[in-house]
Design a protein that fits this description.
Layout (H helix, E strand, L loop, with lengths): L3 H15 L4 E6 L9 H8 L4 E7 L2 E6 L4 E6 L4 E5 L14 E5 L2 E6 L4 E6 L1 H8 L13 H8 L6 H5 L10 H11 L12 H20 L26 E5 L2 E5 L17
Antiparallel strand pairs: 1-6, 2-3, 3-4, 4-8, 5-7, 6-7, 9-10
Amino acid sequence: MIELPQIEQQRRKLDQHFVGQRIREIKVQKESWINVSLAELSAAVIGRQLLFVERRGKAFIFHLDDGKRLLLHVGVDAYFSFSHDEAEAVVDASKPQMEIQFEQGSWRIAGARTLSLQWITAKELDEQLKAWGPEPLSRNLTIELFKRRFAKRRSSLKTALTNPAIIAGLTPLIADEISYRAGLIPSVRIETLTDEDWGVLYQTMVEWLHEAIEEPEEAKHTYAVTGRTGEPCYQCNTKLEELRISGKTAVFCPSCQEEHVKVSVPQGV
């Protein structure tokens, strides 16, 4: 399961292990996954120093010392492996779909359903990013801006959350988890949400993403509804159900999630 939290975990590892090193070799299993020929890509990036690795939504952005960028999208079911030394390389039954070898070690991808790698200029990257919404964990994304991103939209909550032009990197799976924790049914129409609903939704999104990123890679504690249809809700023991929204399945708790967040009334009022 490769979602935004797992991409961010990998980005941090890349920054930790390989920033400042030069690329020795790059391998890509299918040339159709690259926007240039493999020979052209290799000639361009071998010897280049990795300055830092950025993440935008679910995409990796490798910043090279010549001003160029490598924009990498990795599909679901991918898994990543590192080696800090060629002698440490893990022998895997599946051939890596992509590998970047650095001066001290390498980074590999295997198992991805899809993979896209672009070698582009900073200007070309900026043009592409114009079509993407803001990063959900950006410091610039305040609750006010968050609400404005959805203004004048007419759709279900799940459909809106997964629109990359509104917010980058929120997949159907993450939308289900955020909706569950916020106590909002994913089919609710966003034009009916109150200020309190938006406030809870924004805070929930930020908290859930931070928790999932900090969680150990092998743990899945933050995933409360994903893959659990028919199982008991962690909060109330009601069986989780499915519903179809714009052709996609959403998992939710019929007891804990409603069209508006539950307002707690102070005792004695």
